[in-house]
């Protein structure tokens, strides 16, 4: 059953804050540029709306205009650094353990096949988990490269 973007945006907006986004909805938002842009706009709007107002009590019109002019309405892109230290540590641990198990299994071909098969599955699982957990980062990087 094919749905339009309005259906997916209604599903997204019906979620509670912090509720996990279902896979089919995530897949659509990732693959649809207009829905992705709309979700980013919602996130920016929520962030701006959640900030406390910094208007002093008794401010005159000139002060209010000056303050409103200083408000960032999401026009400037902020760079968020993604910490991958734990991923690097776990990846290094995975590679070292594969190397050690590979050396220890050289005596038996059956054991060697099992170790290498398990190693391949571990690498695939690690790569999948890394991309799944950092998908937003990769989408932003891809979007920036496409624009330039």
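Q: What amino acid sequence fits the structure above?
A:
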């Amino acid at each position: 059953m094919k749905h339009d973007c309005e259906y997916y945006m209604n599903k997204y907006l019906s979620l509670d804050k912090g509720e996990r986004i279902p896979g089919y909805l995530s897949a659509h938002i990732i693959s649809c540029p207009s829905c992705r842009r709309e979700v980013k706009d919602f996130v920016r709007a929520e962030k701006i709306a959640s900030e406390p107002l910094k208007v002093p009590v008794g401010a005159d019109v000139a002060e209010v205009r000056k303050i409103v002019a200083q408000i960032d309405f999401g026009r400037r892109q902020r760079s968020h650094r993604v910490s991958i230290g734990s991923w690097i540590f776990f990846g290094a641990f995975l590679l070292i353990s594969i190397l050690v198990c590979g050396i220890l299994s050289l005596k038996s071909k059956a054991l060697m096949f099992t170790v290498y098969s398990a190693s391949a599955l571990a690498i695939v699982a690690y790569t999948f988990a890394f991309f799944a957990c950092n998908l937003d980062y990769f989408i932003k990087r891809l979007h920036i490269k496409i624009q330039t």
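Q: And what stands out in the fold?
A: The chain has a mean pLDDT of 77.
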